[in-house]
Amino acid sequence: MSLIVQKFGGSSVADAESIKRVAKRIVDTKKAGNDIVVAVSAMGDSTDELLDLAHQVTPIPAPRELDMLLTAGERISMALLAMAIKSMGYDARSFTGSQAGMITDAQHGAARIVDVTPGRLRDALDEGAIAIVAGFQGFNRDTKDITTLGRGGSDTTAVALAAALGADICEIYTDVDGIFTADPRVVPQARKLDRVSSEEMLELAAAGAKVLYIRAVEYARRHGVTLHVRSSFNSNTGTIVYNPGATSPYATAVLNGETVEEPIIAGVAADLSEAKVTVVGVPDIPGKAAQIFKIVAKTNANVDMIVQNVSAASTGLTDISFTLPKSEGQQVLTALTNEQANVGFAGLQYDDQIGKLALVGAGMRTNTGVSAKLFESLFEAGINIEMISTSEIRISVVTRADTINQALRVVHTAFGLDGDDLAVVHGGTGR
């Protein structure tokens, strides 16, 4: 008997018929002789609707009360799903995040998991029940308050439960058939990957691939959890996200025991959520970059790419550019402006019309010419590169936002990633 954790996103439980379809899938898995724990998201776009409602009441909702409000969405889903399973003759019990033992820090809206104590889930499993857990939420022991994990929190919930319970596999159900070489909504010829390493998936998620959130992938990698990303609309084999050297027997069985050399390129991802800040006229002397990024760090902004220009010989000044989420741009600009006299830079430029493209593949380590092919393909398409950043298995470039989709398709084709058939998207969100 295997213990399987399954996670169903909002598009998979968007309405009553979808919930009944998901319930049947869960029951079929139970009939096959497996123990099952399910993490579920709020129905459809209900979280966004609750957020809109909160902002109609007040421009700045109190964080504690906002968490209380938003957790209602998952509680509705978990209860309805448990009801549907019970109507099929199988025992199911729903649990909130706190009841399931999801212990977090006290940060409302973006809490981090500090412990998982799934005693009640184990009891339910031992008694033959299917455990349904509200994703996205937890509980802080010190404040006794309900917390939420932030966007993608249901993915993280599922992975954390899989790690704590020692599950054989964590299945993430979405509205596409797995992880693709690019977003199939932008690149219709994108191919589904049978497997991708957790290292590659981390880079793809960080670069904007929406099918898995980076926190969930990071947690799975750290705790040795194997993920199976699948469609909730069919029974096809999806994509295994594995930890090299630690693939579970379940994952090996899904892949029919195949062990093959890593492809050079796993996929291409694009992100339009970032902006670029340029600090103009920085004195090119030791300590100035440190001074600038200490100011940025105090705002808790997440800096991504950083580029410093060569100092102008005549002036001894340089420019430093960096990218960060658009949502954090204004607070960083304010913080830097307030310290302009102390740092001694000439001015600031802000650009939120950029797009980031990332090429990811573990095979880059042992193959030459990847950078040349990437830059040549963009050049031939007339797409200008503004910034470049690399790691051992990733090359990222910044271009104009209005050319990013074209860049994605061009690079995808240049590296031979196009498939013979058009990718199928069953829903519309990618979650």
Q: How would you characterize the overall build of this protein?
A:
With 431 residues, the protein is an alpha/beta fold. The protein folds into 2 domains: 3-260, 3-Layer(aba) Sandwich (Carbamate kinase), CATH 3.40.1160; 265-414, VC0802-like. Helix content is 34%, strand content 24%. It has 13 helices and 20 strands. The chain has helices at residues 16-31, 46-57, 63-87, 119-126, 153-165, 198-206, 214-223, 249-254, 288-298, 329-338, 340-343, 370-380, 404-414, and strands at 3-8, 35-40, 92-95, 102-104, 113-116, 130-134, 137-139, 146-148, 169-174, 195-197, 227-231, 239-242, 267-271, 274-283, 306-308, 317-325, 347-351, 354-360, 387-391, 394-400. The chain has an 8-stranded mixed beta sheet with strand order 3-6-2-1-9-11-12-10, sandwiched between helices. β7 and β8 (146-148) form a beta hairpin. α2 (46-57) packs antiparallel against α3 (63-87). The longest helix is centred in the first third of the chain and has 25 residues, at 63-87.
**Name of the CATH superfamily of the largest domain:** Acetylglutamate kinase-like
Name the beta content range. 15-25%
| CATH architecture label of the largest domain | 3-Layer(aba) Sandwich
Number of helices: 13
CATH topology of the largest domain: Carbamate kinase
- Please state the structural category: alpha/beta
Helicity, in percent?
25-40%
Q: How many distinct beta strands?
A: 20
Short description:
By secondary structure, the chain is an alpha/beta fold. The protein contains 13 helices and 20 strands.
